[in-house]
Every structure is written in structure tokens, then in C-alpha cells.
Amino acid sequence: MVGLKEELLKSIWHAFTALDLDRSGKVSKSQLKASRTVLSHNLCTVLNVPHDPVALEEHFRDDDEGPVSNQGYMPYLNKFILEKVQGNFDKVEFNRMCWTLCAKKNLSKSPLLISDEDAFKVWVIFNFLSEDKYPLIIVPEEIEYFLKKLTEAMGAGWQQEQFDHYKLALNTSREGLSAWELIDLIGSGQFSKGMDRQTVSMAISEVFNELILDVLKQGYMLKKGHKRKNWTERWFVLKPNIISYYISEDLKDKKGDIILDGNCCVEALPDKDGKKCLFLIKCLDKSFEISASDKKKKQEWIQAIQSTVSLLRAGSPPPHKEARQKRKELRQKLLAEQEELERQMRELQTANENKQKELETVRKQLEAAAARAAEEEKKRLQTQVELQDRFSLELEREKMVRQKMEEQVAQKSSELEQYLQRVRELEEMYKQLQEALEDEKQARQDEETVRKLQARLLEEESAKRAELEKWHLQQQQTIQMTEAEKQELENQRMIKDQALQVAMQQLEQLELERKEALEQYEEVKKKLETAANNTKSWKDKVAHHEGLIRLIEPGSKNPHLITNWGPAAFTEAELEQREKNWKGKKMTSE
């Protein structure tokens, strides 16, 4: 009932909007009231709804303008007329009544290639295919569908390229066409060039029958009677739930109906009784034998009836209505996607505008910051100049202080250099002392090796060494004397040098004797090496215990023994102890 109500509202909308207007373009109250009263009465008549004029007045009692109120009529129409519609009315008569009210005011005065009856059918088709929003328009997709149907009915070829150009021009100016613009388009012959008026009229009627009257198929066939069993030609009209048959195609004299439901079936029959192309329609109460004009018509009718029964079993609407619903759903889906895309674009645009505002705010903040920075830079430069002047004075003072400090540093550097020179000299003296100590150490080691053999020469050597040491000390004392004493001392030194030479000769004699003793020592050394192989490190231990190896230490204040090589590394007591040991060993060996 909702779909039926929408279809009725579209036709009523045309009649409602075609009410008389005065010269100023406004609705005349008297004419509008009379027109709406007449419209309400006519609607009740064609829709088989009881008319209640009192209800019309009661409905507008609280409205100052009464029945002429635009806001009050549509609720009245829904409540008192459309809600009472049961469907037992003639759709064509209803549409013709609405057409009569609106055609005269809206139909184009220019000559058309179609008749008024064809224009009426196009108008009804428009109401069927138009969108469910007001003011009513038919979108390009539905225009294409309608034109394809017409072209197919006329037996002509569809010119897709021609329609694409028209669609492109249409989309640039508007969303679709009104009913009267669609009538002008069909009546102009733009898409039916080369076709006569009769062919176009027949094509419009065929499309009208299919889309509006739900005629799925129609044509002449022979029907076998149930009582007289004779064959009679009838005009059959197939609709979604019924097959009606008439005497002729003008549909004036109906002879009967074949009620279709999900239990009906159709099957082909073999030729018999001189009749060909037979098929049988089985219903619950009756069966109908039909004879088509040829095999093609027979097959078409069987398929059409089977499709209709299948739709009844599935509870589906007629194919053209189902296709229209799918096209609407597709458009709604595309529209929803487009709206969603537009919403996203608006959101993006809003976000972009917000970003632009944020950037503008940031730019202003940057400009303000730049102005503040410039002011601060100016203050900084001024402060810098003041500081530079102050620093210049301080720098001059610092230069003077630094100059004084550099002079002091130079002085300190000179002192440091002198100190480092003294350090280097001390290090050199230390190295020389180390070398001397190493030499002395080596000499003492050599001395210790031959000390046992030289013990008997110690007394004589010590005496000579003491005398030489005395002379040496005297020489050192002589060097420290004044220049006035040098000559006298030089003479004494010469005398002493002569005595020293004599002593040196004696020392050389002793050296010869020492070499002989060394030869004897070498023989003893070979024997000692043989013994050393049996007793590891005996020599080192003996040397350690006997104190042959000594560190260089400050000498004692007591007089030292003098050897051929200088002061001895042992005392008189140690020498006496060693002489005793040597004599004891000698006696033992003898």
C-alpha cells in the first residue's frame, strides 16, 4: 500500500500544483478553495472513497485560511482520502482525471509529433519512473531506460552516442527533466527520427501497457471452449496474476479471465484435431487449451506464463517494477556514497580551513615573535655597544695587566729555564755518578774475585795507597790555595810528583807480581768453575754471606784501607778476619 500511495501522490501533486493563480502570481483564495474542493470530490469519486465535505471544513477549522492553507491540505489528503483507498479503482481513469486538471496549464503549445493521448501515456510513465521527491523529475538513467524501451518497441536501433551527448548537455544544466519536458522530448522526435506518428504511438502504448498496466504479453490466439469445444480467436492479455481474453484488441468486450497462482503450470501439447502449436494452462479448478499462430509465439507464451507463475511462487513483483526498484536502490546507494564522499570532502575542507586558520595564527604569532625579536635585537645591539665601550676600557686595563704579567712570566720562564738547566746538569751528573758507581761496582766485583790471592799484598799496597791518598788530599788542598801560594805549592807538587813516580814504579812492580798472581788465579778459577757446576750459585751465596757485594754507601769517618785501585771496600777488622781464614785454608791444603 505504501508503493500505491506514492504513485497516487505523484499524480495528485501535478493536479494540486496546477491550481489557478491570479495575475500577481499568488494563489487566489476563492479559486484555490473551490479548486481543492473539486479536487477532493473528484479524487473520492475515482478512488471509490466516500466523500465527506464536512470533514474538509472541520479539518481547517483552526486555520485562518481554511482549505486554502498549503500546510493543511496534504495532511487532510492523507488522512481522509489516501488512507481509505483499497485498490479497487481504475488507475487509468484516476490518472486521466489528474491529467485533465494539469495538462491544459502545463502542456506545451508548440506542435508535437505525438497525440494528446500519447502525451497522457508519457505523463503516466513519467510518474512511474520519476524520483520519490518533489518537485518531481526523471533522472537521466530513467530517461535512458524509457527511450530504450521505446526504441525497442519501434524496432529501431538504440543510438547510445546520441543519448550520451544529450545526457552530457543535460547534466551540465540540471539533475533531470520534468514531466512536461519529457513530453516535449518525446514529441520532438529527437530519438525517433525516421519513424511515423503511428509507429511512435504504438511504441508508447506498448511501453505504457507494460509499465503502467502491468501487461507482460498480449496477442491473438485460439482458445478451446469448455462447453461447446469449439475454437475461437481471442485477444489475450497476460498480467502478473491473471490472463484476460477479449473479443478484440480494443479491450472493450472481455470474455473471461484465467486466474494465475503458484499452483498453476503450463505445458506444451502435441498437434491434434487439425490444430497446431498447442499448449495447456492448468489451474486448480480448470484447464485451458490454447493454440498459438506459430511455434515461436507458442514458445514465447509458454515462457512468459512460466515466468509469471515463478514470480507468483516467489512473491516477487513484476519484472519492470523489480528492475525499477533495483535501479532506485542503486541510485540511492550511489547517492549515499556520493553524499558520504561529499561529507568527507567537506570534512577535509573544514580540516583544511582549520589548518589554514592555524597556519594564519602561527604566521601572526611568528610575525609578532619577529617584531619582538627585532625589538629585542635592537635592545641587544644597544646593550652590546654599551658593553663594548665598557669592555674596551676593561680591555685596555687588562692589556696593561697582561703586559706586566707577561714580563713576570718571562722572568719566571727565565728562572724556570735556569732551573731546568740545573736539573739537566744534575741529571747529567747523576748519570755520570751512576756510571762511576757501575764502574766501581764492577771493579769491586773484580777485586773480590782476586782478593784471596792479594791478601798478602794488602799491607804493602795499603801503605802505598795511604801515602798516595795523602798526597792526593794535599793536592786538593793545594788547588784551593790562593794564587800567591800556587808557585810554592807547584814546587812542592813537583817534588811530590817525583816521589809519586817512584811510588808508581814500585806500584808497577807490584802490578807485575799481581799479574803472576792472576795467572795462578786463572788456574784456580778453572778448578772453581768445575766445582761451581756441582754447587749452583755457591759463589753468589758466599759473596752474599761474606759481604763481597755491597751497596755504595756513604763512607765512615774512620780511615779506609787503600788498594791499587783506590779505597778498599773492607775494614781492617774484616781484612784480619779474612787473613785468618786464608791462612787456615792454606794450612789445611798443605
UniProtKB/TrEMBL annotation:
> What SMART domains does the annotation carry?
PH
Q: Where is the PH domain?
A: 214-310
Q: Which PANTHER family match?
A: SWAP-70 RECOMBINASE, SWITCH-ASSOCIATED PROTEIN 70
GO cellular component terms, semicolon-separated: cytoplasm; lamellipodium; nucleus; plasma membrane
Quaternary structure and partners: The SWAP complex consists of NPM1, NCL, PARP1 and SWAP70.
* EF-hand domain residues: 7-42
Q: Does the keyword DNA-binding apply?
A: yes
Name the UniProt record assigns to this protein: Switch-associated protein 70
Q: What does this gene product do?
A: Phosphatidylinositol 3,4,5-trisphosphate-dependent guanine nucleotide exchange factor (GEF) which, independently of RAS, transduces signals from tyrosine kinase receptors to RAC. It also mediates signaling of membrane ruffling. Regulates the actin cytoskeleton as an effector or adapter protein in response to agonist stimulated phosphatidylinositol (3,4)-bisphosphate production and cell protrusion.
Coiled coil regions in record: 320-541
